[in-house]
Amino acid sequence: MGFLQIQLTNLLAILVITASSKSSLSATPPNFPIALKPNCTDHCGNISIPYPFGTTEECYQSHDFFVICNQTFDQPKVFFWNSSVEITEIKLDGQLRVLSFIAHDCYNRNGTSASYSGTLLQMPSFLTVNNTANKFTVIGCDTDGFIVGQWLDREYATGCIAMCSAEDDLTEGSCKGLGCCQISIPKQVWQVNLSLTSFHKYHSNVWNFDRCSYAFLVEEIAFSFSPENLTNLRNVENLPVVLDWAIGNGTCVEAQMNASSYACKSVNSKCYKPDNGYGYRCSCLEGYQGNPYLIDGCQDVNECEDPHLNNCIDIKHCVNTIGSFHCHGESLAFKLAAEISLGIIVLLLVAWWLHLGLKRRRQTKMRQMFFLQNGGMLLQEKISRRERSSNTTTIFSELELQNATNNFDNIMIIGKGGFGIVYKGFLPDNRIVAIKKSKEVDPNQIEQFINEVIILSQINHRNVVKLLGCCLETQVPLLVYEFINNGTLFEHIHNKTKACLFSWEMRLKIATETANVLAYLHSAASTPIIHRDVKSANILLDQTLTAKVSDFGASRLVPLDQTQLFTLVHGTWGYLDPEYMQTNQLTEKSDVYSFGAVLVELLTGKKVLSFDRPEEERGLVNLFLSVMKEDRLFEILEENVTREGNKKQLMKVAMVAKSCLHVKGNERPSMKEVATELEGLMLREKHPWVPTGHDEEAKGFLLDGEFSGAINVGEDNSTSIGFDSAKNHVMLLTMGGGR
Ligand SMILES: *[C@@H]1O[C@H](CO)[C@@H](O)[C@H](O)[C@H]1NC(C)=O
Ligand SMILES: *[C@@H]1O[C@H](CO)[C@@H](O)[C@H](O)[C@H]1NC(C)=O
Ligand SMILES: *[C@@H]1O[C@H](CO)[C@@H](O)[C@H](O)[C@H]1NC(C)=O
Ligand SMILES: *[C@@H]1O[C@H](CO)[C@@H](O)[C@H](O)[C@H]1NC(C)=O
Ligand SMILES: *[C@@H]1O[C@H](CO)[C@@H](O)[C@H](O)[C@H]1NC(C)=O
Ligand SMILES: *[C@@H]1O[C@H](CO)[C@@H](O)[C@H](O)[C@H]1NC(C)=O
Ligand SMILES: *[C@@H]1O[C@H](CO)[C@@H](O)[C@H](O)[C@H]1NC(C)=O
Ligand SMILES: *[C@@H]1O[C@H](CO)[C@@H](O)[C@H](O)[C@H]1NC(C)=O
Ligand SMILES: *[C@@H]1O[C@H](CO)[C@@H](O)[C@H](O)[C@H]1NC(C)=O
Ligand SMILES: *[C@@H]1O[C@H](CO)[C@@H](O)[C@H](O)[C@H]1NC(C)=O
């Protein structure tokens, strides 16, 4: 009977809609100790400082948690030790709220007069930016804001652009690119720097109402855009940001091996891995509450005191026990009532069950609809057509791919991007593959996915990574690519040891291959294709250093979809066509621009965007164009390149790059012209007898020979298409206020 009573109350609790939301930690003062010793302060003003945090060496768990309580202000303030970052709230369950600065860039009519960018906090690895609570926000009418940080142990950079041309463009509460843009932060991001720049030439006509641009990280609920923020944010010093904290940087198992340093000191506590960030956290077992980091910190909850926590029909019969409670001998009247309710219970259960069944069926139906909506059928059709034409595409079962990736184990992750996650997988036939999985069921991501398949099913080229197959059994299709094992061009250029071995000849060969494949995409394929995200991290290299272009998720078949105005831009910082800022369209010539940036990267060995360089040199393209103007090219070339390259040839390649980087798209050469030119340069180096004075002739010759060669590829099994965003150092996220 006791069982039934519990059932009844549970059921009622469910049906009466669980409105009993848990009260916030800070709302009521805790009735259990939170500091280590009686002599340790557990608050500063009204901000509580729970252990492992503390204000003296005896009081904190490790130096990471050393905070200062500064009483000299009207209202005492808490700071991280040795830092000016103010903490406004510390929660025991792993979050804290800090006040972050606002990067700004303020100008007068003759240009930038004052700008400030910087580091949020020299964050040690125990602090991670909370990925759900915060948004990176950029405000301005001519503003390109970026956030650069660490993502796991790699570099991470993303940003968004806020543009407007008239005050009427701005809408209260709307942050979709007009005057304001916002993007999410992925998990595992720490040590962030914020910065912004402007495209001054577009600025003069908006000067009347926009004098400053801003970029900041902010707790989403604490900021809502208003057109007035273009001016009034200047008076705001900082905005709240939620950080996740954890202990140490090892896993629970590793931490438990050393009992003296293991932080979950309380009996009745347990260790768990945080959703975001390194390290581990502690929590009290169910039925206990308090501070799990203190010996005896977790104390029994008296469930009988809180009607939400016990389900006894009469509170008088509730008996609290350690870690739990029970309802002692409820009276006869209650038993009778319970018995009468039995029928009702059964009825309710049946109703509930029916409801669940209906809901589930509706869900399945919705999933199917969703799949169809997003081109699932089209995908299926394309795949099956591909299968008929060539025997290369396989339909994998979900189980096969689960086995290949050890059930999508995190250690198999080799890359992440705006679109999803890439896993390395081992097939039973010993083939190694890269499996791309959309992160969430976000319509935008599915669309990109299907886009990629559709695009790839139309390309047949040896310099494109090969799509081996896909899996349609999952709600979100999984794509399987050949695994390209020699890393990205980005690594070969920027990893010091690899760069030493990366000869100029090889660099030029890879550039030529890439130019050729882009030319092929723009002209040789049945419908022209714009890659839209050409960058060194998207050019993979195989064992023989043959270029394999990857990541067609953002690609589009021309003509461009006009409805895309002011929505997602897929280019990556430093590679993005500046003309996009005016037209909001990416064209073939945008690929030419991005390719130009890659060419400069190959020539100079420098990153396209680097915060280690002085402010005016952060963008490699600008640096390159200014040295070209001053005829100082050879000062910025990579050592190897200068040593091995023929000066005249290097100069010519630099001229090609310069022409690709022309601000006006229609003054840039076509990709085909670029490819031809590079091939000519490569050939002339090998065969100096090729006449140099008759470029036109040489071009014609090359066009006949090489280009038709490019079309031929793909008949045999050397054809390849594919992907492995694997080792993107600079992680690409989609930008703009698309969400
Ligand atoms: C607290 O501080 C007082 C005075 O400084 C000292 O006498 C006492 O022993 C301290 N108590 C503990 C538990 O450390
Ligand atoms: C602390 O007090 C100030 C001023 O009374 C108030 O604005 C703030 O919200 C309080 N903070 C917390 C965590 O209760
Ligand atoms: C408290 O803040 C004031 C003003 O910023 C500063 O001068 C002082 O050094 C701080 N005190 C401590 C103990 O950090
Ligand atoms: C603490 O701050 C002082 C002064 O800014 C600096 O000299 C010192 O290196 C800092 N210590 C650490 C561990 O960051
Ligand atoms: C901008 O121009 C005005 C007058 O033309 C001049 O007084 C002022 O110093 C200039 N400001 C800067 C930052 O160059
Ligand atoms: C952030 O800026 C600091 C100081 O300028 C620099 O040391 C650090 O490397 C930067 N971090 C990243 C990820 O660029
Ligand atoms: C943005 O502007 C609105 C309207 O003036 C103002 O209420 C709000 O506080 C501003 N936001 C910030 C963060 O200052
Ligand atoms: C983890 O901590 C150890 C010891 O403090 C340190 O050597 C190691 O570099 C840390 N790892 C990361 C990823 O921070
Ligand atoms: C365990 O942790 C303590 C305190 O951090 C440290 O001194 C000791 O060296 C560690 N022992 C081992 C075996 O790692
Ligand atoms: C981010 O913060 C929210 C509270 O603001 C919390 O519920 C959530 O769990 C945090 N996310 C992670 C990944 O820790």
UniProtKB/TrEMBL annotation:
Reactions listed under catalytic activity: L-seryl-[protein] + ATP = O-phospho-L-seryl-[protein] + ADP + H(+); L-threonyl-[protein] + ATP = O-phospho-L-threonyl-[protein] + ADP + H(+)
SMART domains the record matches: S_TKc
Main enzyme class: transferase
Annotated TM spans: 340-358
One Gene Ontology MF term: protein serine kinase activity
Binding, ATP: 437
Listed GO CC annotations: plasma membrane
Topology term for the membrane: Single-pass type I membrane protein
GO terms for biological process, alphabetical: cell surface receptor signaling pathway
Record-listed E.C. numbers: 2.7.11.1
UniProt xrefs under InterPro entries: EGF_Ca-bd_CS (IPR018097), Kinase-like_dom_sf (IPR011009), NOTCH1_EGF-like (IPR049883), Prot_kinase_dom (IPR000719), Protein_kinase_ATP_BS (IPR017441), Ser/Thr_kinase_AS (IPR008271), WAK-like (IPR045274), WAK_GUB (IPR025287)
Leader sequence segment: 1-26
Occurrences of domain Protein kinase (ranges): 408-690
Main location: membrane
Database matches in Pfam families: EGF_CA, GUB_WAK_bind, Pkinase
Keywords in alphabetical order: ATP-binding, Disulfide bond, Glycoprotein, Kinase, Membrane, Nucleotide-binding, Serine/threonine-protein kinase, Signal, Transferase, Transmembrane, Transmembrane helix
Location(s) in or outside the cell: Membrane
PANTHER family, per database record: OS02G0633066 PROTEIN (PTHR27005:SF283), WALL-ASSOCIATED RECEPTOR KINASE-LIKE 21 (PTHR27005)
Protein name: Serine/threonine protein kinase
